[in-house]
């Protein structure tokens, strides 16, 4: 979509990719620490480790709410690898990405295989792609389905996180956000064409592909809390 001056709008979505464990989540959290909390929306994910072994993943909002989205103890009706995935919790977490006039930035960690089991999450991300607010999201190096779709979008700029650039990336991202937020070129991507996004390997010294299965039966939802053990919970991410 061209601007009123005939120029193509700059991408308003920045994707961060990189090998597993490279530090994408750490970069997102450091960026969040440099932004105004009241103007920030989204979430990040982190590992749940027990006895030095990874047992699952929890999703945390920037307001401090947490829910476990995957665990080896969960039902395997929806699964990625050895982890059962709580799709209902991911559906509820999509509300963290809802349009909000007070939001100036959305941070999303991550666009991955687990998250893409939720049709609501995918729908929320598509709405952000079609919107105006600057978005920074992590995404896997490889993947099909929505992970490939988002990488093809002309609304997206793709940066790779490496050992060499990860320490200085947060400052670069904050600078990018400041430029994107003040740019008059940003606008709704209602007629975006498919194409390859710009890939930038920042030279500094610091996974979808799963079609959502039919969900005909509800399963019990098990929540793990940072302080607690195992327990049944119907807790949800509510509206802001």
* Strand arrangement, major sheet: 5-6-4-3-2-7-8-1-9-10
Helix content: 10-25%
What profile does the largest beta sheet have?
10 strands, mixed
Radius of gyration: 18 Å
- What is the mean predicted local confidence, pLDDT? 80
* Low-confidence residue ranges: 184-196, 198-235
**Count of extended strands:** 12
Distance from first to last alpha carbon: 32 Å
What is the H/E order?
A: EHEEEEEHEHEHEHEEE
Overall morphology? globular
User: What percentage of amino acids are in beta strands?
Assistant: 25-35%
Number of helices: 5
**Coarse structural class:** alpha/beta
How would you characterize this protein structure?
With 240 residues, this protein is an alpha/beta fold. 20% of the residues lie in helices and 26% in strands. It contains 5 helices and 12 strands. It has helices at residues 24-32, 87-93, 119-129, 146-152, 169-182; strands at residues 13-17, 40-50, 53-61, 66-71, 79-80, 83-85, 105-111, 135-139, 156-160, 198-200, 222-224, 230-232. The strands form 2 sheets. Strands 5-6-4-3-2-7-8-1-9-10 form a 10-stranded mixed beta sheet, sandwiched between helices. It has a two-stranded antiparallel sheet with strand order 11-12. A hairpin with a 5-residue loop joins strand 11 (222-224) and strand 12 (230-232). Helix 1 crosses helix 5. It is globular and about 50 Å long.
């Amino acid at each position: 979509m061209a601007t009123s001056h005939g120029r193509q709008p700059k991408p308003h979505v920045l994707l961060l990719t990189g090998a597993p464990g490279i530090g994408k989540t750490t970069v997102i959290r450091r960026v969040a620490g440099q932004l105004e909390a009241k103007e920030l929306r989204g979430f990040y994910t982190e590992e749940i480790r027990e006895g030095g072994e990874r047992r699952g993943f929890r999703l945390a909002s920037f307001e401090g709410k947490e829910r476990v989205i995957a665990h080896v103890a969960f039902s395997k009706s929806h699964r990625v690898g050895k982890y059962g995935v709580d799709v209902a919790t991911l559906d509820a977490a999509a509300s963290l990405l809802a349009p909000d006039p007070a939001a100036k930035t959305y941070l999303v960690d991550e666009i991955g295989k687990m998250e893409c089991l939720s049709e609501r999450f995918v729908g929320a991300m598509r709405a952000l792609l079609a919107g105006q607010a600057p978005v920074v999201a992590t995404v896997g190096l490889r993947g099909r389905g929505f992970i490939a779709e988002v990488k093809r979008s002309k609304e997206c700029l793709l940066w790779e996180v490496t050992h060499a650039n990860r320490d200085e990336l947060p400052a670069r991202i904050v600078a990018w956000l400041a430029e994107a937020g003040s740019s008059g070129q940003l606008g709704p991507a209602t007629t975006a064409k498919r194409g390859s996004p710009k890939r930038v390997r920042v030279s500094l010294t610091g996974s979808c592909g799963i079609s959502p299965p039919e969900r005909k039966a509800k399963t019990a939802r098990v929540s793990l809390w940072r302080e607690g053990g195992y327990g049944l919970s119907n807790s949800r991410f509510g509206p802001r």
